[in-house]
Design the sequence.
């Protein structure tokens, strides 16, 4: 409603447009009161946004056993990677052994040459690349 542009992978564009067009009748929001089509841009492989000396890089790390397309966000200056579902770190307790999707994710980080120190998962606590390497190498 405020004119934001949504950036996603091509395969997710129809879903994003459908969600953006959904009516909110119980608690109408600005977009429901003044409907207009969402502005959705797609990217393939990599997309970079920068302002001055700051940058965020989006990467499609799919396909993998979890999904066909998956965007992760990388902040190169901070060596920080944000990811959902491919690597979760519990708030307490031991790390779970890596499944196929986590193993492929670790391989994609290496193949892309990303210099990652910290990982911010959508679920759980902040982690490190060493923790990812630990679960991938565990037998």
Sequence:
């Amino acid at each position: 409603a405020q004119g934001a542009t949504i950036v996603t992978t091509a395969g997710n564009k129809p879903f994003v447009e459908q969600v953006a067009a959904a009516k909110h009748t119980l608690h109408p929001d600005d977009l429901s009161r003044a409907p207009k089509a969402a502005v959705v841009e797609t990217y393939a492989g990599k997309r970079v946004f920068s302002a001055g000396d700051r940058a965020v890089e989006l990467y499609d790390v799919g396909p993998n056993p979890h999904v066909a397309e998956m965007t992760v966000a990388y902040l190169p200056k901070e060596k920080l990677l944000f990811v959902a579902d491919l690597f979760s770190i519990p708030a307490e307790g031991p790390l779970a052994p890596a499944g196929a999707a986590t193993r492929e994710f670790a391989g994609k980080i290496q193949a892309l040459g990303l210099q990652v120190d910290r990982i911010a998962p959508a679920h759980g606590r902040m982690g490190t690349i060493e923790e990812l390497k630990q679960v991938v190498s565990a037998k």
Remarks:
- The helical segments are 13-21, 30-33, 100-112, 129-137.
- The mean pLDDT is 93.
